[in-house]
Structures are given as C-alpha cells and as structure tokens.
# Entry
Amino acid sequence: GESVGLHLPTLSVQEGDNSIINCAYSNSASDYFIWYKQESGKGPQFIIDIRSNMDKRQGQRVTVLLNKTVKHLSLQIAATQPGDSAVYFCAEGGNQFYFGTGTSLTVIP
Amino acid sequence: DVKVTQSSRYLVKRTGEKVFLECVQDMDHENMFWYRQDPGLGLRLIYFSYDVKMKEKGDIPEGYSVSREKKERFSLILESASTNQTSMYLCASSDPAGAGHNEQFFGPGTRLTVL
# Structure
C-alpha cells in the first residue's frame, strides 16, 4: 500500500490563530489529495481537495497547498475556532485512497 | 442532505461469532467502501465495491467478506470474529460520475469489541 504520513500527531493552537497541518505522501502518481476532519465519535468529513495539477486551493477559512516536488501537502485553517478541534487526515489517490494516521488539533480558548 | 448510515454505533461480540455490519447510503452512489480505523494506523481499506454484486479486496481483506446485493447496501461480514478485529469500522460511499467524484462520504462508524 501507499505510505501517507503526517509530520506531527498533535497540534495545539490558540483560538484566533492560524493552524497549519502537514502531510507527506509517497506516490508521485496520485491524482487527488483530500483533507478530512473527524470529530470525536463521528466519521471523517470532507473539507477540501486538490488535483495534482494545482498547487493551491482555497475554501472557506481553509487553504490546501500542494508541493509535488517534495510530495508535501498542507492544510491551513485561518482564525482557528474551538469547533475546529478534531483529527485531520490527508488522503492521496485516485479511485482508491490511502489515508494518513491523522493529526489531532486542539484549539485553546 | 447526503447520508451514510451504519446499523450499529457500538457492538460487542464473542470470539468465533459471525458478525454482520450493515451500511446503507441514500445518494445512489456507485462506489462503497469498508475501512477499519485503529490508533496509529489510520484508515485501512478492507473491501470496496464499484457496483452491485461486485467486490474488490482492499489492503487488509483477511478475515472479512462483503456483500453488495443492492446498490444502496454494502455489508461487511466477519465469519469468525477474533480479538484482533476489535476496531472502529467505517463505511463510505462515493459517486465516480459526480462533480466531486473523489469525495467519499463516511458513516458515523461502528465500534466493534470482540471479547
């Protein structure tokens, strides 16, 4: 299987600050990359995705950056809120996806 | 509003029992997936299906089987449950022809404990 990893297993940020969650992937042929958010007791929820032919994509308060040269993906959350506390996964692939182990984000009020 | 439901949130079974985990989606999606989620290992794909009556092995199919008799329903079967199958099981579906065709919609998960 593919190897998808996250640099840090936990991240704590102050409410209102920006958060950056990083992810390294191994398959340079992957077409799509997706970020998921998983709150306690719930299934993963889609946040944002990016195609391999893009290097940046923005959503509401979130931005995903893709650096294919170093096979690195990041999720930036602007003005982090308590409701953003969750585990965040990156996933790479095409028809089939491979998921990272997740980064646990804690927002300190 | 899209919805993937799983038959149980929590399940406790004994070693050797046959276990059925049911998943239903109401989005008319072609693709359905079963994952297990374990601490430090992330989500690992057990089986997936691209169509009714069709199934493909994922990365860790051993000890599991699946059934897709209807488009909306994808069942995961543990023929003889073992303690190492204690895990969180997540079902997902996706529409390969949709605008967000790579997005997988997940159910809430079933936490299975095998004693």
